[in-house]
């Protein structure tokens, strides 16, 4: 009678998964099944018992609209855990969703993408949350490394690969060669900071208070990193007048949104410049030909690739599926963990 080693037995029965635990969205990839969940990183719980009522899209609809008995919030801030208990509850809810609310026979192995600028304390919080949510083994991988693998860059070759991953809470700029990060710059500015900049601009200029969800809609609809001579767009924004206290509507132009986004965009551009200045000369020569790859939801901001190309003088490409690059990369590492073991964080 043949006995299998415990590790091999676990790998047969468990649903090993890769998780992009992002500030804006949580995406889960299950081994041999691909991406099975892509939901906003939002959880709604009863304030008295912390019982989870909803997570993901259902909870996002409740943001800013709940009574005192319900708390709806985003437990991730700037790419790291802001509320440990709620993050754990959200993860457990999503894992059960993935398994169709069944309890699995074996606890899964997990690979989780984390920002490169994460501290040891923040990293431990991520690992503890995953363990409490039901993980057997936990590995972490830098988000820019996972994004580069997911975008299809040849990270295993002795050539320079540059990735700019703009998420909800952080922007990660990394130069990668031989399955490891040569230089990395992480700034806690991303899509959320852009939303907050729009909220503050409208508050200053129109004395109108709008929510971050409304600001996100404005950014997606008419947000731009560079003004061009194309047809100018505008959008109606509804909020509360801070002078009279009654609801009010104003019309916002793309020029105004561009003005409000100037500061967060300049921080991202400076981070890219800093990475290029610190790149070894041999890798810099590779980047002249290979250019910069952009990933993450924030990279979808209109004309951001054109602005980066203009500021750096390098070709800039947008990844094929920018929102899922990190999870696809982490999933590829999960499938070939022995080949990519150098890419995992120690």
- N/C terminus separation: 38 Å
Averaged pLDDT, please?
90
How large, in whole angstroms, is the Cα Rg? 21 Å
Q: What coarse outline follows from CA principal-axis ratios?
A: flat
What portion of the residues fall into strands of 2 or more residues?
25-35%
The CATH superfamily of the largest domain is ATPase, nucleotide binding domain
CATH class category of the largest domain: Alpha Beta
Number of helices: 11
CATH architecture field of the largest domain: 2-Layer Sandwich
Question: The CATH topology of the largest domain, please?
Answer: Nucleotidyltransferase, domain 5
Low-pLDDT sequence parts: 1-13
Q: Give, in spatial order, the strands making up the sheet with the most strands.
A: 3-2-1-9-10
Helix content: 25-40%
* Tally of structural domains: 3
What is the number of E strands? 18
Biggest beta-sheet profile: 5 strands, mixed
Order of helices and strands: HEEEEEHEEEHEHEHEEEHEHEEHHEHEH
Helix-and-strand structural type: alpha+beta
Characterization of the model:
The protein is an alpha+beta fold and 346 residues long. It has three domains: 6-145 and 326-343, Nucleotidyltransferase, domain 5, CATH 3.30.420.40; 153-189 and 262-319, ATPase, nucleotide binding domain (Nucleotidyltransferase, domain 5), CATH 3.30.420.40; 191-259, Actin, Chain A, domain 4. The protein has helices spanning 6-13, 57-60, 84-98, 120-132, 143-150, 191-206, 212-222, 254-277, 281-290, 304-312, 325-335; strands at residues 17-21, 25-30, 34-40, 43-46, 52-55, 70-73, 76-77, 80-81, 109-114, 137-142, 161-166, 171-177, 180-187, 208-209, 234-241, 247-253, 292-295, 316-318. The strands form five sheets. Strands 3-2-1-9-10 form a five-stranded mixed beta sheet, with helices on both faces. Strands 13-12-11-17-18 form a five-stranded mixed beta sheet, with helices on both faces. The two termini are 38 Å apart. Residues 1-13 have low confidence and may be disordered.
């Amino acid at each position: 009678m043949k006995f299998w080693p415990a590790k091999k037995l676990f790998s047969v029965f468990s649903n090993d998964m890769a998780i992009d635990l992002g500030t804006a969205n949580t995406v889960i990839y299950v081994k041999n099944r691909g991406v099975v969940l892509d939901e906003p990183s939002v959880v709604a719980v009863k304030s008295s018992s912390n019982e989870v009522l909803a997570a993901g899209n259902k909870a996002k609809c409740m943001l800013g609209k709940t009574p005192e008995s319900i708390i709806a919030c985003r437990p991730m801030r700037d790419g790291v855990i802001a509320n440990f208990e709620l993050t754990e509850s959200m993860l457990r809810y999503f894992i059960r969703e993935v398994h169709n609310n069944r309890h699995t026979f074996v606890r899964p192995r997990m690979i989780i993408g984390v920002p490169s600028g994460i501290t040891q304390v923040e990293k431990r919080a991520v690992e503890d949350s995953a363990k409490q949510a039901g993980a057997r083994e936990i590995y972490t991988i830098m988000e820019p490394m996972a994004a580069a693998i997911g975008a299809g860059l040849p990270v295993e070759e002795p050539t320079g690969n540059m990735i700019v991953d703009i998420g909800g809470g952080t922007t990660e700029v990394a130069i990668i060669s031989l399955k490891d990060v040569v230089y990395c710059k992480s700034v806690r500015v991303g899509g959320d900071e852009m939303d907050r900049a729009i909220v503050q601009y409208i508050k200053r200029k129109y004395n109108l208070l709008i929510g971050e969800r409304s600001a996100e809609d404005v950014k997606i609809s008419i947000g731009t990193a560079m003004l061009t001579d194309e047809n100018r767009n505008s959008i109606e924004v509804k909020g509360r007048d801070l002078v009279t206290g009654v609801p009010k509507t104003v019309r916002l132009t793309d020029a105004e949104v561009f003005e409000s986004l100037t500061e967060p965009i300049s921080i991202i551009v400076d981070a890219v410049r800093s990475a290029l200045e610190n790149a070894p000369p041999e890798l810099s020569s590779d980047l002249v030909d290979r250019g910069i790859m952009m990933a993450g939801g924030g990279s979808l901001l209109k004309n951001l690739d054109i602005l980066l190309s203009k500021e750096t003088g390098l070709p800039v490409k947008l990844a094929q599926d920018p929102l899922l690059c990190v999870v696809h990369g982490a999933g590829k590492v999960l499938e070939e963990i022995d080949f990519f073991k150098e890419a995992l964080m120690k």
